[in-house]
Amino acid sequence: MAEDADPARRSIGARRNPDSAEAILQAAETVLVEAGYAGFSIEAVARRARAGKPTIYRWWPSKAALLLEVYQRQKRVDVPDTGRLEEDLVGFLKNLFAHWRETSSGSVFRSLIAEAQSDETAAAALADYSLGRRSHTAQIIERAKARGEIPAEIDSAVVADLIASFAWRHLLTNRLDEDEATIGKAVNYVMRGIAAPAS
Amino acid sequence: MAEDADPARRSIGARRNPDSAEAILQAAETVLVEAGYAGFSIEAVARRARAGKPTIYRWWPSKAALLLEVYQRQKRVDVPDTGRLEEDLVGFLKNLFAHWRETSSGSVFRSLIAEAQSDETAAAALADYSLGRRSHTAQIIERAKARGEIPAEIDSAVVADLIASFAWRHLLTNRLDEDEATIGKAVNYVMRGIAAPAS
Amino acid sequence: MAEDADPARRSIGARRNPDSAEAILQAAETVLVEAGYAGFSIEAVARRARAGKPTIYRWWPSKAALLLEVYQRQKRVDVPDTGRLEEDLVGFLKNLFAHWRETSSGSVFRSLIAEAQSDETAAAALADYSLGRRSHTAQIIERAKARGEIPAEIDSAVVADLIASFAWRHLLTNRLDEDEATIGKAVNYVMRGIAAPAS
Amino acid sequence: MAEDADPARRSIGARRNPDSAEAILQAAETVLVEAGYAGFSIEAVARRARAGKPTIYRWWPSKAALLLEVYQRQKRVDVPDTGRLEEDLVGFLKNLFAHWRETSSGSVFRSLIAEAQSDETAAAALADYSLGRRSHTAQIIERAKARGEIPAEIDSAVVADLIASFAWRHLLTNRLDEDEATIGKAVNYVMRGIAAPAS
DNA sequence: TCATAAACGAGACGGTACGTCATGTCTTTTT
DNA sequence: AAAAAGACATGACGTACCGTCTCGTTTATGA
Questions:
Q1: Is there a contact between C162 and D162 (Cβ–Cβ < 8 Å)?
Q2: Do C193 and D196 touch (CB under 8 A)?
Q3: Nearest to residue C150, comparing CAs of C91, C78, C86?
Q4: What is the mean pLDDT of each run of 10 residues along chain B (199 residues)?
C-alpha cells in the first residue's frame, strides 16, 4: 500500500501538486483502514503521506472535508434495475453492505458520520451529500412509480429515508454482515406492510 | 445547573462518594449541552465538577462509560399504548424526537453513537443497550400481534430495527424537528406497505 | 526481602503497632534499594508494607522523617582507634565507604541529602544529625590532641568537616569504589599539608 | 522578572526559536529562585515562560538537562591568581560562596545535585561537568607546582577534590555564610597539615 | 529573461487533552 | 484509640495532536 511514489516530492510551482493531493488522499484512506477513526489524525495522514501539515490544511480545511473527499473518490455502489422495485431495493442494500464491508468505504463513511456529530461543517457537508444520495436512491422508487408498481402519491423521499436509515444503523453498529434474509424482510415490510390483510 | 453544592467536597471514607458521582454525571451532562461533543473531555468534566480526573477514571474507565451512564440516568421516553399499533409507533417516535430535542438526551445519545465509532468498548456498550431498547420497542409490536393486528410471523426485531434506524438517522442528521406528517408517512409505509394494491 | 510476615496484619488496638512500624521501615529500605530515590514514594512504601498511607503519615510527618529513621536504624560504622590519627581517619573513611557501598545505607543517606534540598524539615533533621556525627568524628581528632599528635589549637570541627565533605561528595557522585590510595592521599594532605617544606 | 517580551511568541519556522529557549531558561531560573527545587516542575516553567510543555521536552529531555543548561549559562566565578596558592584557594572559595549565595547559582546547583540522586542522566551530566570544573580548579594547584610552592608529586586532582567537597557540603547544608575564618582554617589545614611538627 | 508568486516538505510553536501517578487529607470499619 | 483500607481533590508527569507559523526550495508565470 505504498503511497510514496517519489521519495522526495516537491513543489511543482505555484499551483497544486496533484501528486501530493493524491498521496494525501491515499494516506488518509490507509490510515483510516489501518488505525480506524480513533487513529485518524491530520498528523498521522501527513506522516504517512510524507506531506507537510499545512499542505493538508491548505486544501482541506477540516478533517471532515478530507474524509468527504476520500469517500467521494471511491467507486459508487451499483443501483440495480431489475424492473421490480423490491428486488432493486434488496439488491441495492446487499451491494451497499458488501461495498462498505469489503472496501474501505465503510470505515470512511462511519468516520464521516462520527465527525459530523462534533463538527458543524462536517454535518453540513454530510447533509449535502446525503441529499444527493437520497434523490439518487429515490430514482429507483420513481422508476417504480413510472411503471405503476407503486402509487404516485408515495413520498419517495421518505421511502429512501427508511432504506438509508436501515443501512446507516447497520453500518454504525457493526452489523454489515447481517443475514440476507433480514434485509429481505425489512424491504418486504416496507413494500407490503406489516398489517394483517383486512379479511 | 450548579454542580458545587459544597465548595469543598471531600472523601467520605473508603467508599465511593455519591456526591462526587452525582456532581460528575451532572457536569458531564452540562458540558455536553453547553459545548457539544467536541468540547466533551474528561478534563472539562473534571473541571466543571470540581472533581479529580482520577476519580472519574476510577469509576468510568472511558468516555463511553460516562456517556452511557449519563444517558441511562435520564427519564425514559413514554411508550404509548393506544390499542392501535400505528398510533403507538407514531406516538413513540414523536415522543422520542421531542425527548431528544427538548432534553439533553439527544446530545448525549448522539455523542455516544459517535464515540462508539472510535471506541470498541463504547460500541459494545451501545450494542448491549440497543439490544435492550430494541426488545423493549418490539413489545409494542408483540402486543399488536397478540391483538391480531399483525400476523404472528412478522419479525418484530426487524420492524423495531426499521423504526429505531429512522429515529437514529434523524438524530444524527439534525432532523429531529421533522414534520410530523413525515413520521406519519414513514410509519404508514411500514404498516401498509408502499406497493400498489393488487388490482 | 519479604516484609509481610503476616499477610493480614491488623490493628492491635489503641496503640502503635510495632509490627506495622517495622514493616514500614523495612519496606522503605527495600523500596529505596530496589527502585532508588526516584521510586521512593510514600505510596510505594505503603503498598510494599501493606499499610495504609495515613498510618505512615501519622508516625512520620514527611518523607525525610522516614528516611532519617531508616538511616538511623542501621548499624553504625566502626571508628577505629589505632593510636595513630592518620590510620584512624583512613580506616574510618574506608569503613564508611564500604558500609555505604555494601549496605543500603548509602542509598538511604543519598536520598536523605537529596530530600533535604527541597524539604526544609529534612534539612533541619539532617543538620541535627550531621552535628551529632561531626562531634563524633571530632572525637577521633580530640584523642589525637590528647596524645599530643596534633596541636591543641587545631579546630577539630573543621577537620571533621573536611573529612565528612570528602565522604559526602564521593557518595553523591557515585565514587564510593574510589581507589584506596586516593583516600590515603586525601588524609595525608590534611595531615601533613601539601606545601613544600620550608627549606 | 518579566519573561514575556513579546506577548505572543510564535514559531519562526522549522527551527529552534531562540526567544523561546531564552524565555524558558529565564523562567526556569526564576521558578527555582522563587519556589525552590520543590516547586521546580516542567509544568511551572512552561507556565511562567508562556511556553508549551512539548517545547521544553523537545529541547531538554529531562529536568536535569534544563537545570544543567541554566547553571552553565551563568557567569563563572573568578579564580584569583595572587601568586600564593593559599590566597588563591581562600579567594576562590570566598568568591564561590559569594557567587552561590548572591546569585541564583547556588539554588540551581543544589537542585542539580539533588536531581542527580534520582536521575541517571543528571548524574552523568553532573559528573562530566564536575570533571571539567575539577581540572579547572586543579590548574590553580598546577601553577603553584610550577612556582615550586608545592612538590610536583602532589596529586592536584585529590587536592581539588578536597576543596570542591568542602564547598559542596557547605552548599548542601546551607552554610554558605560560613565565617571567613573557617574557610581560612580549612585551606590552611590542607596547605600546612594538622600534624604537630616533629620537634 | 528574470523577478515574483505560490506551493511544497519540514518541523517548531503555544496549547489542550490524554491517562497515570503521587500527595496529603479524610471517613468508615475493625480490633 | 489506632490501624487497615481506600476514596478524595489536586496537580505534575510525559505524550499526542491541534492548527498556525516561518523557513528554504522549487517551478510556472508574467512583466
A1: yes
A2: no
A3: C86
A4: 48 81 96 96 96 95 94 90 95 95 95 95 90 88 94 94 96 93 96 80
Please list the rounded mean pLDDT of every run of 10 residues in chain C (199 residues). Answer: 41 60 93 94 93 92 92 88 95 95 94 94 88 87 93 94 96 93 96 79
Question: Is residue B13's beta carbon less than 7 angstroms from any atom in nucleic acid strand E?
Answer: yes
Instruction: Note the helical H segments in chain A.
Output: 18-35, 42-49, 53-59, 63-73, 85-102, 105-116, 120-146, 156-172, 180-192
DSSP B52-66: -HHHHHHH-SSHHHH
Inter-residue contact A164 to A130 (CB < 8 Å): yes
Chains that touch B (3 or more CB pairs under 8 A): A
Rounded Cα gap, residues D119 and C36, in angstroms:
9
pLDDT tens-place string over residues C26-71: 999 999 999 999 999 999 999 999 999 999 999 998 899 999 999 9
Task: Compute the average pLDDT of residues A152-158.
Answer: 94
A199 — pLDDT class (breaks 50, 70, 90): low
pLDDT digits over D165-179, tens only? 999 999 999 999 988
Give the other-Cβ count within 10 Å of A6's Cβ.
Answer: 9
Hey, what's the cell of C5? 510476615
pLDDT of residue A5 exceeding 80: no
- Cβ distance C114 to D118 less than 8 Å, yes or no, reads yes
Residue B183 near residue B191, CB atoms below 8 Å: no
Q: Which residues in D lie closer than 8 A to residue C193 (C-beta atoms)?
A: 189-194
Cell of A26: 491515499
Among A162, A150, A134, A132, which Cα is nearest to A85's?
Answer: A150
* Least confident window among A11-25, A111-125, A173-187: A11-25
B98 touches strand F (CB under 7 A): no
Whether residue B60 contacts residue B66, with contact meaning beta carbons closer than 8 Å, is answered with yes
| Residues in chain B closer than 8 A to A198 (CB atoms) | none
Which residue, C97, C102, C103, C95, is CA-closest to C78? Answer: C95
| The C-alpha cell that represents B169 in the structure block | 438517522
pLDDT at B71: 93
As a whole number, mean pLDDT of residues D67-89 equals 93
The predicted model gives D75-103 an average pLDDT of 94
- Is C36's Cβ below 8 Å from some Cβ in D? yes
Nearest to C25 by CA among C15, C16, C38: C16
User: pLDDT tens, C97-106?
Assistant: 999 999 999 9
Rounded to an integer, what distance in angstroms lies between the CA atom of residue C118 and that of residue C125? 13
Cell numbers at C80, concatenated: 577505629
Q: Where are the beta strands (DSSP E) in chain D?
A: none
How many Å from the CA of D14 to C1' of F23?
A: 6
For residue A15, how many other CB atoms are within 10 A of its CB? 7
CA distance from start to end of chain D: 61
What letter does residue A175 receive in the DSSP assignment?
Answer: -
Q: What is the Cα–Cα distance from A153 to A145, expressed in whole angstroms?
A: 9
Among candidates D159, D38, D165, D151, which has minimal Cα distance to D96?
D165
State the Cα–Cα distance between residues B66 and B55, nearest whole angstrom.
12
Chain B CB within 8 Å of residue A22 CB: no
Residue closest to C139 by CA, chosen among C97, C79, C180: C79
Per-residue cell: B140: 409494542
| CB-nearest partner of A194 from B159, B161, B195 | B159
Q: Which domains does chain C have, with CATH numbers?
A: 18-59 (1.10.10.60), 76-192 (1.10.357.10)
